[in-house]
Amino acid sequence: DCVSQIVDKALNGYNGTVMAYGQTGAGKTFTITGSTENFQERGMIPRALSHLFQSISTMIESSVTVRVSYMEIYNEILTDLSLLRTRNLKLLPYPRTTE
């Protein structure tokens, strides 16, 4: 339910992020991806994508572009899990800005 609220806000022009944080073995991966064997136990990402595309299907007069990233940060190594070939991506510090 909380993921559907993020999806709804994203469809209204806001950026949305779903993140799992915690100790090794705490169940983050299962929470995010869920079970592939039982539809009722699907995770946050499959539920969010389902809600996203159901919502888009009702927006007949709109054009929608969807961009999804599926990233993992582990031991300060960034991996894009949506790529077929895993690459270690570099984490760069965000430059400080003042206004």
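Above is the first protein from milestone M3; the second protein from the same milestone is given next.
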Amino acid sequence: EDGEAVVSTQSTGIDSCVLGEDSTFLQQSSEMTGGTYVRVTDHNKLAQYLLSVFLMGAEFRKSFNTPPAAKVDFRAACQCHSKMTDVGYVCSVCMSVYCTFRPMCMTCNAHFKLPTALFKAKKVTGKRKLEALNGKT
């Protein structure tokens, strides 16, 4: 659902001013929509950031010296642990990402089956192995 909201706002841009820990979701949203992401570490400078970065329109920000954009991590966070993952399993119904296979999606309750070929791996040795390598069955 959150991803759908980001896609629908790509023409407007999402600006994010974060006071606590970094937010991967807000970083990705701001980057994808051409908005600005700023994490304020010194709360005494909050007014300065709000006035100098967020008050002016997006078309004028390019003309001013605004804080540089941080490198954005576009990996997906798994639903089960909320940790970033390079490779995972994606629910074909709701697009939730999981770091390990789950027979049922925790988000939309869709049910999945693993192909039985993964469980029935045969050990091929000797003459049959040579035939398999040469393309014969």
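Note on the second protein: The longest helix spans residues 24-33.
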